[in-house]
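User: hey, got a sec? need HEAT repeat domain-containing protein folded
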Amino acid sequence: MLDPDIAPSGTLLGLLQRGRGDGTLHALAAPRAEALAALDHCVLRDPRRDWQVENRSLYYARLYLDLDGGLDAIGQHLFAADDHLDTGEERTGLALAVLGHLASYGRDDALALLRRYAATGANWAWALDELALRDDDAGLLALGPHVLARFPVTPEGDGALAAAVRDAFEPRPWRLWADEGRSPATAARVRAAREQGSFDRWQRQLRPSGPRPGWSVREVLDWAQEGLSLHPVQLRHVPATRCLTAVAGPEDRGEIIEAAAFGEGAARATALRYLAEHHDPQALDLVETAAADPDPVVAEAAVTAFERMRSPAALERARAWIHREDPLGAAAAGMLACRGATYDAALVLAALRRTVRAEGCDAAVLGDLVDGAGRLAIACSAPVLRHVYRETASSHLRGRAARALAATDPSFPAGFAVECLWDCEESTRELAARHAATADDRVVEQLRRLAADPAEEAEVQTAAGSRFGPEAPAV
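Assistant: Yep! Here you go:
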């Protein structure tokens, strides 16, 4: 099921929300007012399911340039009263990133909005990071007093300033302010904050809170379990597994197996991961039992432990479990897709079709299944791959579907590869630049644009430029 905020894939808004290349092509052919309204909607209401792995900002910025779009709607969104009520990065992050790209293309109105927001907005740190990459020294120096004024000259304010300097993604503005000769007080305060951040890191290294050398297996398991009683809860079974690897010996196997079978929450999860990573003969049976446990910590750890296994026995068990309709069955399907042999193609294809039919085009396991269809070159998977490509709300998954289609669908170069040249994901644009048929003049023009655009990723520029060299492949 698609998120209810995502429009149908056949509409202009739906195409733009997904970041599809056809979204750009349809927007340029649509009435300008309609296209700009849809574009503003996307930028002001971030449509991404996971903004950490999906790109949209350069895609939307280029469309603002192509449509000669104004930025009034973005400005009203940034400086609305909600800005100081809803301070999460999700509300303004995409808009600020779009402004950053527009500023790099020479849009002075975008640069002015970023400067103003960095001085007064709630998500000022993001705006400052964008300016650190695009603004000149004079513009950044002028912002210094406004940013420092956010931190009162109190112990609490100095602590918050030290944290802001320490956590800054781009250090350039802070370095400029620390060396600012015209404002000695500002420079001294920033230097003190930088020193405090370094001191805090040193103090944390001197006072580690985790396991110590010499701990026993029981102490490591107790430490993992203790994390569940803290507020907020700390899920420690992953680091505890590493600690267990360091302290456990062959004589401890019985105790660890007992914990994996009958232990509490995090302790049981730790033991399961340890046994799976060490390919213990009993690991798979213990995983199968734990995957059905009502405790989500135990069940999720069991599935994750199985996914990380690399033994032939795990593959054999995956072939038996792939028909299960639970997370362990999904993990088995993903394992066969990623590591199965050619004779597993029928199982992978059946799992792909079953998942799309039952869970839609945004199921978590689809990424591995799509990759597996391409890796195993399952030609008859092309229809379902094309369906996933069109309907998924995830541009990351769509890119994986495009790679699978390049390996399975002979029509890809003249079909989806063409629109992929305008896709929001750079890896998808790179794929298209290597495969797109050049019979259409728009393809040649877009390849030249990608090769020459300084905002484009180097891999995309190289792939696009290679289509025009003396050794360019004939299409």
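Quick note: The chain has two domains: 12-206, 217-468. Let me know if you need anything else on HEAT repeat domain-containing protein.
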